[in-house]
Write a structure and sequence with these properties.
elongated; about 50% helix; mainly alpha; about 150 residues; 6 helices
C-alpha cells in the first residue's frame, strides 16, 4: 500500500536527482526505503514497476526513457512465404493421387505456412480458451462414462 507520504518522498527524491535515469531513481528509492529481497538484493524491478504505475496514474512525473532495450523476438522476420496451390479440386476423389513432399524441412513448414496464410493472430483462440474447452469436454465425457 502506497501512502501519500510515500508519494511525497518519491517526488522529493525525483526533485533532488533531476538528471537521474529511471533505473537510478529506482535504485536510490530501494536504498532509501531499505527495500531488499530475501537474498539481500535490492527490489529494483519491483520498485521500477511501482514508479511506472505511479507515473501512469499521474501521481509522479518520471524522467523520459533514455534507453529502450530491443526485443529480438519482436524484430524477428517471419518465415518466407511458400507458394501454395489453392485452385479448387475439380475431379472425383478416386482420381486423386498422393505425392510425397520433397525436402527435409517441407513437411514441418507447410502446415505453419497454411495456418499463417488463412488465420490472422486474432482468429486463433488463446491457449486458455482451448484448454477450457478441452476441460469442459473431458468433464462431459466423464459424466457420460466414455
Amino acid at each position: 500500500m502506497v501512502t501519500t507520504d510515500d508519494v511525497t518522498s518519491i517526488r522529493r527524491l525525483i526533485a533532488e536527482n533531476p538528471g537521474a535515469s529511471r533505473r537510478r531513481l529506482s535504485e536510490k528509492l530501494c536504498e532509501t526505503w531499505q527495500w531488499k529481497q530475501a537474498n539481500g538484493a535490492w527490489r529494483d524491478m519491483v520498485c521500477r514497476g511501482l514508479l511506472l504505475m505511479l507515473h501512469r496514474a499521474g501521481e509522479i512525473e518520471l524522467p523520459p526513457i533514455r534507453f529502450q532495450t530491443l526485443n529480438p523476438f519482436v524484430l524477428r522476420a517471419g518465415p518466407a512465404p511458400m507458394r501454395i496451390d489453392t485452385t479448387p479440386i475439380a475431379s472425383a476423389l478416386k482420381e486423386l493421387r498422393l505425392r510425397p513432399v520433397m525436402g527435409a524441412m517441407a513437411p514441418r513448414r507447410l502446415p505453419a505456412q497454411i495456418r499463417l496464410r488463412s488465420h490472422t493472430p486474432r482468429s486463433i483462440p488463446a491457449t486458455g480458451v482451448r484448454n477450457a474447452a478441452r476441460e469442459k469436454c473431458t468433464a462431459r465425457k466423464r459424466r457420460q462414462r466414455w
